[in-house]
Specification:
mainly beta; six-stranded antiparallel sheet; four-stranded antiparallel sheet; elongated; binds zinc ion
Length: 182
C-alpha cells in the first residue's frame, strides 16, 4: 500500500488544529563599491526553508517558495514533491553602498503531528531551521547571467566571485536569521 503508515497518502488539508504561522528571514551581504565592473547583483525572489510538513507528516522538509506564488512545494520524502500551504508574504531588499540586505516573511499553515520515521513530534518552527537564499548577477565582460546561493550551514565568512572574470561579488559574514513571528 502506498502513502504513509496509516495507508492515507496525505493528511486532510483541512486539519482541525491547523494554524497560520509567520517566519521572518533576514540576511545581509557586504558588496564591493559599484564601479565600472558592475555585475548587477540582486536577490532572486525565491528561497528554500526547512519546515515540519503536516501533509506528508515529516519534520525538517526542504520547502521551495517563490515570491508571488500562492503555494509552496514540499520536497516530501523519497523525492515525492507535493504542494504545501506556504507563501512568501514579503520580500524587501535594502541596497546600500557596501551592503545589501534582505528581509523576507514566509506564511505557512502548520498542524501538530508525529514523524514516525524520525520518531519525533513536529514543532512550529522546525527543530534546526535552515534557509537557502538565491542571488543572480550578470557579468559585463562575458554578458552571461549567473546565479549562486547562500545558506544557513556554511562555514563563514564565505565570499563569492564571478565565475567568468573572478570579480568579487559578495561576502556573507553571518548566517541568515530565522525568527518565528507568530
Ligand atoms: Zn511535505
Ligand atoms: Zn564577471
Amino acid at each position: 500500500m502506498g502513502g504513509d503508515r496509516n495507508g492515507a497518502p496525505y493528511a486532510p488539508v483541512c486539519e482541525s488544529r491547523t494554524v497560520l504561522r509567520n517566519v521572518e528571514i533576514t540576511a545581509e551581504l557586504t558588496v564591493p563599491l559599484r564601479g565600472e565592473v558592475f555585475h548587477n547583483l540582486h536577490w532572486q525572489k525565491k528561497l528554500d526553508l526547512s519546515l515540519d510538513c503536516f501533509i506528508c507528516k515529516r519534520t525538517g522538509r526542504t520547502t521551495h517558495l517563490r515570491y508571488g506564488e500562492e503555494c509552496a512545494v514540499c520536497s516530501g520524502s523519497q523525492r515525492a514533491d507535493h504542494p504545501a500551504a506556504g507563501r512568501v508574504a514579503a520580500f524587501d531588499v535594502t541596497d546600500e553602498r557596501e551592503r545589501t540586505a534582505l528581509r523576507a516573511v514566509v506564511d505557512y499553515w502548520w498542524a501538530p503531528f508525529h514523524d514516525t520515521k524520525r520518531d519525533e513530534p513536529a514543532t512550529v518552527l522546525t527543530r534546526a531551521p535552515w534557509v537557502r537564499l538565491y542571488l543572480g548577477y550578470r557579468c559585463p565582460e562575458s554578458q552571461q547571467a549567473e546565479a549562486f546561493s547562500i545558506q544557513s550551514n556554511m562555514v563563514r565568512p564565505v565570499s563569492q566571485t564571478c565565475t567568468h572574470c573572478a570579480h568579487p561579488l559578495a561576502t556573507s559574514a553571518q548566517s541568515p536569521t530565522i525568527r518565528l513571528m507568530s
